[in-house]
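$ ./design --mode recover --in tokens.txt
reading tokens...
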């Protein structure tokens, strides 16, 4: 029984620590539900992240607006399918938004 509990405890601890380690945009993107509807290069359910970056290039306050949309969701900007709110912190939403805007 001890041989089973120790690895399970270690695995559980690794999963508990993982979100705290995700501090870059790409890691956050891949570790959240974003990938269910978005891809970097191509349109899926939602627009590609490169299309989002292009649409918001040189727009003042774009990172803050994108972070708000990531955190709270939005509707009507890219068609009839709404984007639901995401379970991310404000800091994570900002990291994601700033990373998206770097994509070319």
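writing sequence...
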């Amino acid at each position: 029984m001890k041989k089973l509990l120790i690895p399970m405890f270690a695995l559980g601890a690794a999963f508990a620590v993982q979100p705290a380690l995700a501090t870059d945009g790409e890691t956050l993107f891949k570790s959240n539900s974003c990938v269910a509807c978005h891809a970097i290069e191509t349109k899926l359910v939602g627009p590609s992240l490169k299309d989002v970056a292009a649409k918001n290039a040189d727009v003042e306050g774009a990172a803050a607006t994108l972070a708000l949309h990531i955190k709270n969701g939005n509707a009507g900007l890219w068609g009839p399918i709404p984007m639901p709110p995401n379970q991310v912190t404000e800091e994570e939403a900002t990291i994601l938004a700033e990373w998206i805007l770097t994509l070319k």
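exit 0
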